[in-house]
Amino acid sequence: MSSARARRPAAAAGADVKAGRRRLLTSTLAAGVWTLGHAAQPTAQAQPAPGPAARQAGFSPWLQFAPDGSVTVLTNVAEMGQGTLSVIEQIAAEELDGVFASVRVQPAPLAPQFFNPFIDNYATFGVLGFRVSYAVLAPVCAAARHMLVAAAAQRWAVPADECSTADGDVRHAARDRRLPYAALLDAATALTPPDKPVLRPPRDWTVLGRSVPRADLQAKTRGTAIFGIDVAPPRLLAAAVAHAPTFGGTLERVDPAPALAVLGVRQVGSLPAAVAVVADGYWAAQQGLAALQPR
User: What distance in Å separates the CA atoms of residue 269 and residue 265, rounded to the nearest whole number?
Assistant: First the structure.
């Protein structure tokens, strides 16, 4: 095969990294789970986010509060061994002023509202994990804390600035009262998130910047972690591809018969600069590919 591996376009890692920070807080309440988050405004190349009129009362998708007050944080960042998932838990615990052990992280659904706002898609590279997660999630968590405090202040009929938060509670020191977040979720969903939630300054951090147990450590050491290669929906097929060894070449011909003779091989596909073997599994695809002699 006198063909070449086609170059991929360079990822737009630096494309408008300084994207606007305006974000829209939206909300929903469903299936007994209170959720809070924001749909980040995408880069200038994408469609603009809705205007302020679209902002609603209540919580929205990036955070999910369970009835017991525990929190699940959604993320569009992949864990590749750098500890990003643990940092995301720290961001949530810091800005919510919650209990670190009660925070969990799950992948966000595949939807535009969860795109990385700096690059307008899903990708993890170039040490963007913390920067993206902090820019997206810290304001969301700070807004949630503000709403929970406001809900407690309304119940107690006191000014919100007399209340504080700690360890997943809202507290009113003047009368020695406290309410757990779980008791305030219903009331908080009726409130409108603040336009510009105030983040904790680094000098006040008690969780961020400190060593914490890795979020992914137990699952990886016990062999229970789920990776992409572990996902096997029904009728899933595997493909093995041989690219041309040089740039600029093309596939002249290939006899598919040797590959099709391998048990489990379904199809051999000819591409402009490559050949692919589709099979019931990875090993059959690789064996079928090895049997070919593309030119």
Answer: 11
Q: What pTM, to 2 d.p., does this model score?
A: 0.65
Alpha carbon distance 221, 196 (integer Å): 41
CB 58 within 8 A of CB 26: no
Residue from 52, 55, 48 nearest 120 by CA: 48
Question: How many angstroms separate the CA atoms of 92 and 231, rounded?
Answer: 28
Tell how far CA 44 is from the center of its chain.
21
Closest CA to 51 of 26, 85, 30, 69: 26
**DSSP H helices in 38-170:** 84-96, 128-156
The C-alpha atoms of residue 60 and residue 62 are separated, in whole angstroms, by: 6
pLDDT digit string, tens, across residues 189-240: 889 888 889 999 999 999 998 988 888 888 889 999 888 788 888 999 999 9
pLDDT at position 219: 87
| Beta bridge partners of residue 260, listed in sequence order | none
Burial annotation 108-132 (CB, 10 A radius, 16+ → b, else e)? beeeebbbbbbbbeebbeeebbbeb
Checking if the pLDDT of 250 tops 70, the result is yes
Residue 121: name the closest of 161, 69, 75, 76 by CA: 76
- Cα angle at 161 between 160 and 167, to 5 degrees? 80
